[in-house]
Amino acid sequence: MAPDQAYRWLMSACAPSAGDGFDQHVFASILSLAIGQMAERQVSLAVTSGLDSVALAEIGAQLFPDAAPALAAMAQGATPIVEIEEQSIREILLMYASTPLPLSRPLAQLLARRCNEPHHLWQDLGLRNRGELSTLMERHFARLRTRNQNDMKWKKFLFRMVCGSEGFTLCPAPVCTECDDFAGCFGGEDGIAQLTHSHGDDIPPAAFVEENHTVH
After folding, report:
1. Cα–Cα distance between 95 and 33 in angstroms, integer?
2. What local confidence, expressed as pLDDT, does residue 189 receive?
3. Is 18 exposed, middle or buried (0-12, 13-18, 19+ CB in 10 A)?
4. Where are the domains of the chain?
């Protein structure tokens, strides 16, 4: 299933009473890219999202009730393998979480997994632009957003936080203004969004699962 189709499917399964819609959009965007990668990489949703079936079912119940069983099934019972750096990013995000754990915990897990992808973080989350990532961080990780007062690129910032927590320095420059790669950390984050964020016809969950049940 293509990411754009997955986004339409998830948004059509939204719970009408679940907030103002921004969180649904964010989770639908991230999960849609992860769903699209399932077929490309021949793996389960647990691998591409970093969430197991229990976490996916809980997200579904909160935000996408009509899709909850299908989302859980796509994990195929697998437990995501979390490397040390990814676990550190999870812990840092949760340390600075500013919203209740039922949403901030899976969001931290999703963000940490998507930090392993090659593009700007807003692109790897399936968002429309970097402004949406800023809104996400202000809403769910406000104190961390405050710490990033110079607006460093979020992947760079999170990995820098990890390095600091592990007791070594990511960058040898004494201050950012003396770094030869200043633009690499603070430059523009222009690019093409990985999703077309439009609503369309519903995709039946049963058909969706049937299409993806053979991957491992």
Report:
1. 26
2. 62
3. middle
4. 3-212
